[in-house]
Design brief:
The structure is a single chain. The chain is mostly beta strands. The chain has two domains: 147 residues, Immunoglobulin-like, CATH 2.60.40; 256 residues, no CATH class. The chain contains seven helices and 26 strands.
């Protein structure tokens, strides 16, 4: 058998070392200065492989990992990237060190290190790998580049107008964020059918403040084709119509587009005697609603929070908190990694936020359903269990209120929920997310 003559570059790392100086800052290398940990924030914000944006290469915001194969002399691999200093109080000086070049490969990393990286700024860099000579057998080369920096105090704070979340968004998520209701703080200020911003306090399972962006009211432009048999030709015959709940961050602040099927296609009992999601019948039914073989290029595995509570009188914020809390009856899990799930009670409640319906938003159990796009006049399962009643589950009733009386043997409707991978792109064209012009996804293979 003829041996391959390629240069294999595998598990190539770029890392950024700013996180290591976020707890204690050294001034002139000797004096300890207490840091503002919540403010100091420097990270990789974008990456491009040979000119194509691919932010999936960024791991935990501090590492870029990739692999490639090069075969010809003078063949190159180019990685463009951006480093963002989102800090408001700190500039940072930077140094760069790359190792791994040899007689086969030249490593060039272009990143400005002579000037500090000011607060609230972004700096581009470029890593170029060039083949210097051919090989007669497969050769593996490992390359490591590290950017390190020390925080430097400023005499005045950096600018206010820095959208850190926008710097991390790509593809369809960035398209949606750019269109959102930036100027209108309430629904009554002006509804342009786009997303509104919500801020959430710390919870037991996510102990930090986070923002997400959601579609609210009864007429948002959040339609999208999904679960398609042919993504090259998307229409009502090859795809299902789904809706976008919003842009939701995980515990690492990675934003994903969260989808729910437009129509309730699940008709099932929850289970037999337990309200545990992991062993439920409805979990299997929900997974059967999505063709994983054809959709796995699009869907991501994410953490679904399974905290429970005792009462049903509560606001959307109240439900959000207990979903991510630590109360459970005798279920073994407070969360579960899934590619398909159901909506949270809070997903339903937030559709009434920002002035759509104060009565519904403040108390989901008192809601009449009017004004929220997730209300469909059917009984709908949510993914959230009760705490003190061992086998009950929260359900949206036909009259629009949230209730806790549903038992596993009850048969209700449900709508599968998925999260798209962060890098998924929207097709360019005359798509505005309305029912007549749903968003379309770029075909992934």
């Amino acid at each position: 058998m003829k041996r391959k003559s390629i240069l294999l570059l595998a598990i190539i790392f770029m890392s950024i070392g700013f996180a290591s100086v976020s707890t204690v800052l050294y001034l002139n290398g000797q004096t300890d200065i207490a840091s503002n940990i919540s403010d100091f924030d420097v990270y990789f914000s974008k990456s491009y492989e040979n000119g194509v944006e691919n932010n999936a290469l960024i791991k935990d915001k501090t590492h870029i990992a990739f692999s490639t194969e090069l075969k010809k002399i003078d063949e190159t691999y180019i990685l463009d990237y951006e480093v963002t200093n989102a800090s408001k109080q700190y500039d940072t000086n930077v140094t760069m060190n790359c190792t791994g070049g040899n007689e086969y490969i030249r490593v060039t990393n272009e990143f400005e290190t002579n000037e500090v990286l000011p607060a609230r700024t972004i700096r581009p860099g470029k890593l170029t790998l060039t083949v210097l000579q051919g090989v007669t057998k497969e050769v593996r080369v490992e390359i490591s580049c590290e950017i390190q920096g020390n925080a430097q105090e400023r005499t005045e704070a950096g600018g206010e107008s820095f959208d850190k979340e926008m710097q991390l968004l790509v593809g369809g998520a960035k398209v949606l964020k750019e269109k959102m209701n930036l100027k209108n703080s309430t629904y009554q200020d002006g509804n342009i059918h786009e997303m509104f911003e919500f801020t959430h306090g710390e919870t037991v399972q996510i102990p930090k403040v986070q923002k997400d962006y959601r579609y609210i009211g009864d007429d948002p432009y959040n339609y999208i084709y999904f679960n398609c048999s042919d993504y090259a030709n998307q229409n009502e015959n090859t795809c299902e119509l789904w809706r976008i709940i919003g842009l939701i961050p995980d515990e690492d602040d990675v934003y994903r587009i969260k989808l729910i099927k437009d129509e309730a296609s699940i008709s099932s009992a929850w289970g037999t005697s337990s309200n545990a999601w992991n062993t439920s019948i409805i979990k299997n039914v929900a997974y059967q609603q999505v063709n994983e073989d054809t959709q796995n290029h699009y869907m991501d595995s994410v953490k679904y929070y399974l905290g429970g509570y005792t009462y049903y009188n509560g606001s959307a914020d109240f439900y959000y908190s207990f979903e991510r809390g630590n109360s459970k009856y005798n279920k073994p899990y407070l969360n579960s990694m899934e590619t398909v799930g159901l909506m949270y009670p809070s997903d339903y409640g937030y559709t009434y936020g920002k002035g759509v319906s104060k009565a519904c938003y403040d108390n989901l159990h008192a809601c009449n359903g009017v004004g929220g796009w997730l209300y469909n006049k059917e009984y709908q399962w949510t993914i959230s269990p009760l705490f003190y009643i061992g086998n009950n589950i929260f359900v949206i009733y036909t009259n629009g209120n949230m209730d806790r009386t549903a038992q596993p043997s009850d048969s209700f409707m449900g709508r599968p929920v998925v999260y798209l991978k962060p890098e998924i792109e929207f097709k360019k064209g005359d798509y505005d997310g309305s029912a007549s012009k749903p968003y379309e996804l770029v075909e992934m293979k």
